[in-house]
Protein backbone atom coordinates (compact mmCIF):
# COMPACT_ATOMS: atom_id res chain seq x y z
CA UNK A 1 0.00 0.00 0.00
CA UNK A 2 1.49 3.36 -1.03
CA UNK A 3 -0.36 6.64 -1.05
CA UNK A 4 -0.07 10.23 0.14
CA UNK A 5 -0.80 8.94 3.63
CA UNK A 6 1.98 6.35 3.48
CA UNK A 7 4.77 8.03 1.48
CA UNK A 8 8.09 6.52 0.49
CA UNK A 9 10.04 5.57 3.59
CA UNK A 10 7.10 4.54 5.80
CA UNK A 11 5.89 1.00 6.47
CA UNK A 12 2.32 0.69 5.17
CA UNK A 13 -0.48 0.06 7.63
CA UNK A 14 -1.76 -3.50 7.48
CA UNK A 15 -5.43 -3.78 6.56
CA UNK A 16 -6.97 -6.03 9.20
CA UNK A 17 -10.25 -6.76 10.94
CA UNK A 18 -9.97 -4.99 14.27
CA UNK A 19 -11.11 -6.27 17.64
CA UNK A 20 -9.16 -5.43 20.80
CA UNK A 21 -6.32 -3.97 18.79
CA UNK A 22 -4.12 -4.67 15.80
CA UNK A 23 -0.43 -4.08 15.05
CA UNK A 24 0.34 -1.21 12.72
CA UNK A 25 2.14 -3.61 10.38
CA UNK A 26 1.51 -7.28 11.11
CA UNK A 27 4.53 -8.70 9.27
CA UNK A 28 7.12 -6.31 10.71
CA UNK A 29 5.64 -6.57 14.21
CA UNK A 30 5.73 -10.36 14.09
CA UNK A 31 9.37 -10.34 12.98
CA UNK A 32 10.31 -7.91 15.78
CA UNK A 33 8.21 -10.12 18.11
CA UNK A 34 6.34 -7.05 19.27
CA UNK A 35 2.96 -8.77 19.13
CA UNK A 36 4.38 -11.65 21.19
CA UNK A 37 5.67 -9.10 23.71
CA UNK A 38 2.26 -7.43 23.90
CA UNK A 39 0.70 -10.78 24.80
CA UNK A 40 3.35 -11.90 27.27
CA UNK A 41 3.60 -8.63 29.18
CA UNK A 42 -0.03 -7.50 28.96
CA UNK A 43 -0.93 -5.84 32.26
CA UNK A 44 2.75 -5.69 33.25
CA UNK A 45 4.07 -3.07 30.84
CA UNK A 46 2.17 0.00 29.71
CA UNK A 47 3.60 0.36 26.17
CA UNK A 48 5.06 3.83 26.48
CA UNK A 49 2.56 5.39 28.86
CA UNK A 50 4.01 8.48 30.50
CA UNK A 51 7.03 8.66 28.19
CA UNK A 52 7.37 11.16 25.36
CA UNK A 53 8.94 10.41 21.99
CA UNK A 54 10.35 13.47 20.24
CA UNK A 55 10.00 13.21 16.46
CA UNK A 56 12.42 15.50 14.61
CA UNK A 57 11.51 15.68 10.93
CA UNK A 58 10.22 18.05 8.24
CA UNK A 59 6.91 18.97 9.88
CA UNK A 60 3.66 17.41 10.98
CA UNK A 61 0.04 18.09 10.04
CA UNK A 62 -1.57 18.18 13.46
CA UNK A 63 -5.07 17.81 12.01
CA UNK A 64 -4.14 14.26 10.98
CA UNK A 65 -6.45 11.89 12.94
CA UNK A 66 -3.51 10.04 14.52
CA UNK A 67 -2.30 13.27 16.14
CA UNK A 68 -5.77 14.40 17.26
CA UNK A 69 -6.13 11.39 19.56
CA UNK A 70 -6.90 12.02 23.22
CA UNK A 71 -5.94 9.13 25.48
CA UNK A 72 -7.38 8.74 29.00
CA UNK A 73 -4.19 10.27 30.43
CA UNK A 74 -3.85 13.10 27.94
CA UNK A 75 -3.42 14.17 24.33
CA UNK A 76 -1.19 12.10 22.09
CA UNK A 77 0.76 15.21 20.99
CA UNK A 78 1.81 17.11 24.11
CA UNK A 79 4.26 19.57 22.55
CA UNK A 80 5.30 21.06 19.22
CA UNK A 81 8.28 23.10 18.08
CA UNK A 82 9.67 24.60 14.91
CA UNK A 83 13.42 25.14 15.22
CA UNK A 84 13.58 26.79 11.79
CA UNK A 85 11.28 29.67 12.72
CA UNK A 86 11.61 29.52 16.51
CA UNK A 87 7.93 28.98 17.25
CA UNK A 88 5.42 26.21 17.97
CA UNK A 89 4.06 25.92 14.42
CA UNK A 90 5.30 22.50 13.30
CA UNK A 91 3.26 22.31 10.08
CA UNK A 92 5.20 21.10 7.03
CA UNK A 93 6.02 23.57 4.28
CA UNK A 94 6.51 22.14 0.76
CA UNK A 95 8.64 20.25 -0.12
CA UNK A 96 8.30 18.85 3.44
CA UNK A 97 6.01 15.80 3.61
CA UNK A 98 7.47 13.07 5.83
CA UNK A 99 6.97 14.14 9.44
CA UNK A 100 3.21 13.59 9.57
CA UNK A 101 3.41 9.85 8.97
CA UNK A 102 6.82 8.81 10.35
CA UNK A 103 5.36 8.52 13.85
CA UNK A 104 2.61 6.06 12.88
CA UNK A 105 4.76 2.91 13.32
CA UNK A 106 5.98 3.95 16.76
CA UNK A 107 3.03 5.74 18.32
CA UNK A 108 -0.30 5.32 16.54
CA UNK A 109 -3.28 4.56 18.78
CA UNK A 110 -6.26 5.10 16.51
CA UNK A 111 -9.36 2.98 15.90
CA UNK A 112 -7.68 -0.10 17.33
CA UNK A 113 -4.52 0.18 15.24
CA UNK A 114 -1.42 0.34 17.41
CA UNK A 115 2.17 1.36 16.97
CA UNK A 116 4.85 -0.32 19.06
CA UNK A 117 4.59 2.08 22.03
CA UNK A 118 0.97 3.03 21.34
CA UNK A 119 0.36 4.64 24.73
CA UNK A 120 3.27 7.09 24.55
CA UNK A 121 3.13 10.84 24.18
CA UNK A 122 4.66 12.55 21.16
CA UNK A 123 6.43 15.86 20.65
CA UNK A 124 6.36 16.91 16.99
CA UNK A 125 9.36 19.03 15.95
CA UNK A 126 9.97 20.57 12.53
CA UNK A 127 13.74 20.91 12.19
CA UNK A 128 14.46 20.60 8.45
CA UNK A 129 12.77 21.73 5.26
CA UNK A 130 12.61 18.20 3.84
CA UNK A 131 13.61 14.85 5.32
CA UNK A 132 15.94 13.91 2.43
CA UNK A 133 18.36 16.77 2.90
CA UNK A 134 19.26 18.86 -0.13
CA UNK A 135 21.49 21.30 1.79
CA UNK A 136 23.19 21.70 5.16
CA UNK A 137 20.45 22.03 7.79
CA UNK A 138 22.58 21.00 10.74
CA UNK A 139 22.06 24.31 12.57
CA UNK A 140 18.28 23.90 12.82
CA UNK A 141 18.73 20.23 13.69
CA UNK A 142 21.09 21.27 16.49
CA UNK A 143 18.53 23.81 17.69
CA UNK A 144 15.88 21.08 17.77
CA UNK A 145 18.14 18.79 19.78
CA UNK A 146 18.79 21.72 22.15
CA UNK A 147 15.00 22.07 22.54
CA UNK A 148 14.80 18.38 23.46
CA UNK A 149 17.53 18.79 26.08
CA UNK A 150 15.85 21.86 27.57
CA UNK A 151 12.39 20.23 27.71
CA UNK A 152 13.27 16.63 28.50
CA UNK A 153 12.30 16.75 32.16
CA UNK A 154 9.10 18.73 31.67
CA UNK A 155 7.86 16.35 28.97
CA UNK A 156 9.67 13.18 30.10
CA UNK A 157 11.31 12.78 26.70
CA UNK A 158 13.10 9.43 26.77
CA UNK A 159 13.68 8.83 23.04
CA UNK A 160 14.33 10.87 19.91
CA UNK A 161 13.51 9.82 16.35
CA UNK A 162 16.06 11.89 14.42
CA UNK A 163 14.55 11.23 11.02
CA UNK A 164 16.45 13.42 8.48
CA UNK A 165 19.18 11.88 6.32
CA UNK A 166 21.54 13.06 3.62
CA UNK A 167 21.34 9.90 1.43
CA UNK A 168 25.14 9.69 1.19
CA UNK A 169 27.63 6.92 1.93
CA UNK A 170 29.56 7.55 5.15
CA UNK A 171 31.94 5.05 6.71
CA UNK A 172 32.99 7.51 9.41
CA UNK A 173 31.36 10.35 11.40
CA UNK A 174 31.05 13.77 9.77
CA UNK A 175 31.75 16.56 12.31
CA UNK A 176 28.91 19.14 12.52
CA UNK A 177 27.23 21.39 15.07
CA UNK A 178 24.83 18.63 16.12
CA UNK A 179 27.58 16.55 17.71
CA UNK A 180 27.77 18.32 21.07
CA UNK A 181 23.98 18.02 21.45
CA UNK A 182 24.07 14.33 20.57
CA UNK A 183 26.83 13.79 23.12
CA UNK A 184 24.82 15.54 25.83
CA UNK A 185 21.71 13.50 25.10
CA UNK A 186 23.74 10.29 25.17
CA UNK A 187 25.25 11.29 28.53
CA UNK A 188 21.72 11.91 29.83
CA UNK A 189 20.71 8.41 28.75
CA UNK A 190 18.17 9.54 26.16
CA UNK A 191 17.88 7.28 23.13
CA UNK A 192 18.62 9.07 19.84
CA UNK A 193 18.59 7.10 16.60
CA UNK A 194 18.46 7.79 12.88
CA UNK A 195 17.80 5.79 9.69
CA UNK A 196 20.73 4.40 7.72
CA UNK A 197 19.19 5.09 4.29
CA UNK A 198 17.27 3.28 1.58
CA UNK A 199 19.55 3.02 -1.46
CA UNK A 200 20.93 -0.50 -0.93
CA UNK A 201 24.41 0.95 -0.48
CA UNK A 202 26.90 -1.59 0.84
CA UNK A 203 29.73 0.85 1.48
CA UNK A 204 28.34 3.42 3.92
CA UNK A 205 25.29 4.89 5.62
CA UNK A 206 23.60 8.28 5.81
CA UNK A 207 24.27 11.23 8.10
CA UNK A 208 23.38 11.76 10.96
CA UNK A 209 23.08 8.01 11.54
CA UNK A 210 26.85 7.75 11.09
CA UNK A 211 27.59 10.01 14.09
CA UNK A 212 29.19 8.52 17.21
CA UNK A 213 26.41 9.49 19.62
CA UNK A 214 23.48 8.65 17.32
CA UNK A 215 22.40 5.03 16.98
CA UNK A 216 22.30 3.93 13.34
CA UNK A 217 19.33 1.77 12.39
CA UNK A 218 19.35 -0.41 9.28
CA UNK A 219 16.72 -2.71 7.84
CA UNK A 220 15.78 -6.32 7.22
CA UNK A 221 13.18 -7.51 4.74
CA UNK A 222 9.77 -7.98 6.42
CA UNK A 223 9.04 -11.70 6.43
CA UNK A 224 12.73 -12.61 6.07
CA UNK A 225 15.72 -12.40 8.38
CA UNK A 226 17.69 -10.86 5.51
CA UNK A 227 19.44 -7.48 5.43
CA UNK A 228 18.57 -4.87 2.82
CA UNK A 229 18.97 -1.14 2.25
CA UNK A 230 22.05 0.89 3.30
CA UNK A 231 24.66 -0.68 5.54
CA UNK A 232 28.27 -0.73 6.66
CA UNK A 233 30.13 -1.69 9.81
CA UNK A 234 28.80 1.43 11.58
CA UNK A 235 25.24 0.06 11.69
CA UNK A 236 24.18 -0.49 15.33
CA UNK A 237 20.98 -2.48 14.85
CA UNK A 238 18.71 -3.89 12.14
CA UNK A 239 14.92 -3.73 12.34
CA UNK A 240 12.37 -5.32 9.99
CA UNK A 241 10.72 -2.71 7.73
CA UNK A 242 10.36 -1.74 4.08
CA UNK A 243 12.44 1.40 4.69
CA UNK A 244 14.83 2.51 7.40
CA UNK A 245 12.64 5.45 8.50
CA UNK A 246 10.23 2.83 9.82
CA UNK A 247 13.07 0.66 11.12
CA UNK A 248 14.22 3.67 13.12
CA UNK A 249 10.69 4.51 14.31
CA UNK A 250 10.28 0.95 15.58
CA UNK A 251 13.67 1.00 17.33
CA UNK A 252 12.93 4.26 19.15
CA UNK A 253 9.57 2.93 20.35
CA UNK A 254 11.08 -0.39 21.44
CA UNK A 255 13.60 1.55 23.51
CA UNK A 256 10.72 3.10 25.45
CA UNK A 257 9.23 -0.34 26.12
CA UNK A 258 12.60 -1.70 27.23
CA UNK A 259 13.23 1.36 29.43
CA UNK A 260 10.01 0.72 31.34
CA UNK A 261 10.95 -2.94 31.80
CA UNK A 262 14.37 -1.92 33.18
CA UNK A 263 12.78 0.56 35.58
CA UNK A 264 10.04 -1.86 36.74
CA UNK A 265 12.39 -4.79 37.36
CA UNK A 266 15.27 -2.81 38.84
CA UNK A 267 17.53 -4.45 36.26
CA UNK A 268 21.16 -3.38 36.76
CA UNK A 269 21.74 -1.70 33.42
CA UNK A 270 25.10 -0.37 34.65
CA UNK A 271 26.50 -3.84 34.01
CA UNK A 272 25.85 -3.29 30.29
CA UNK A 273 27.13 0.27 29.78
CA UNK A 274 27.82 3.66 31.34
CA UNK A 275 24.45 5.21 30.45
CA UNK A 276 20.89 3.98 29.93
CA UNK A 277 20.81 4.55 26.16
CA UNK A 278 23.95 2.53 25.49
CA UNK A 279 22.81 -0.15 27.92
CA UNK A 280 19.54 -0.59 26.02
CA UNK A 281 21.39 -0.86 22.72
CA UNK A 282 23.70 -3.45 24.27
CA UNK A 283 20.67 -5.49 25.37
CA UNK A 284 19.11 -5.28 21.91
CA UNK A 285 22.38 -6.37 20.34
CA UNK A 286 23.08 -9.32 22.61
CA UNK A 287 19.50 -10.63 22.37
CA UNK A 288 19.03 -9.87 18.67
CA UNK A 289 18.85 -12.33 15.79
CA UNK A 290 22.26 -12.82 14.14
CA UNK A 291 22.25 -11.64 10.52
CA UNK A 292 25.14 -12.24 8.12
CA UNK A 293 25.40 -10.00 5.07
CA UNK A 294 27.00 -11.79 2.09
CA UNK A 295 27.40 -8.50 0.21
CA UNK A 296 29.76 -6.98 2.80
CA UNK A 297 30.87 -10.04 4.76
CA UNK A 298 29.70 -8.26 7.92
CA UNK A 299 27.60 -9.59 10.79
CA UNK A 300 24.75 -7.67 12.40
CA UNK A 301 21.96 -8.11 14.95
CA UNK A 302 18.25 -7.76 14.24
CA UNK A 303 15.94 -6.41 16.96
CA UNK A 304 13.88 -9.00 18.88
CA UNK A 305 11.81 -7.14 21.49
CA UNK A 306 10.51 -10.25 23.25
CA UNK A 307 14.05 -11.59 23.74
CA UNK A 308 15.27 -8.20 24.99
CA UNK A 309 12.45 -8.01 27.54
CA UNK A 310 13.06 -11.61 28.57
CA UNK A 311 16.69 -10.75 29.31
CA UNK A 312 15.61 -7.90 31.59
CA UNK A 313 12.85 -9.89 33.31
CA UNK A 314 15.30 -12.82 33.57
CA UNK A 315 12.85 -15.17 31.86
Question: What does this protein structure show overall?
Answer:
The chain has helices at 26-32, 34-40, 104-107, 138-155, 179-187, 244-265, 276-287, 305-313, and strands spanning 22-23, 52-57, 70-71, 74-75, 77-82, 109-110, 113-114, 121-126, 157-162, 191-195, 215-220, 227-228, 237-240, 289-293, 298-302. The chain has 315 residues and is α/β, with parallel strands linked by helices. It has a single domain (24-313), classed as Rossmann fold, CATH 3.40.50. Strand 14 (289-293) and strand 15 form a beta hairpin. Helix 4 runs parallel beside helix 5 (179-187), helix 6 runs parallel beside helix 8 (305-313) and helix 7 crosses helix 8 (305-313).
CATH architectural designation: 3-Layer(aba) Sandwich
Name of the CATH first level: Alpha Beta
CATH fold annotation: Rossmann fold
Count of extended strands: 15
- The helix tally amounts to 8
How many domains, as an integer?
Answer: 1
Characterize the biggest β-sheet: 8 strands, mixed
Strand percent estimate: 15-25%
Helix/strand-derived category reads alpha/beta
Q: What share of the residues lie within helices?
A: 25-40%
Radius of gyration: 17 Å
- Topology as a string of helices (H) and strands (E): EHHEEEEHEEEHEHEEEEHHEEH
Shape: globular
**Low-confidence regions:** 1-6
The residue-averaged pLDDT reads 95
CATH homologous superfamily grouping: Peptidase S8/S53 domain
Amino acid sequence: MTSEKYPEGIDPQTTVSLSSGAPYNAVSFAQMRVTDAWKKYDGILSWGKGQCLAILDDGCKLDDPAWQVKMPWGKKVIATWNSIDGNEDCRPVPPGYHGTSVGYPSSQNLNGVRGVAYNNFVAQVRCVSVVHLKQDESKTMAAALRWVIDNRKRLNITAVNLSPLDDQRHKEPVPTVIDSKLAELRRLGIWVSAPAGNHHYTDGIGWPACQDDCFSIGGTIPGKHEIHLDRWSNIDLLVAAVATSSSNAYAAACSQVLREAIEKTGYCWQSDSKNMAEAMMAIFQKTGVPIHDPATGLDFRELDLLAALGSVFNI
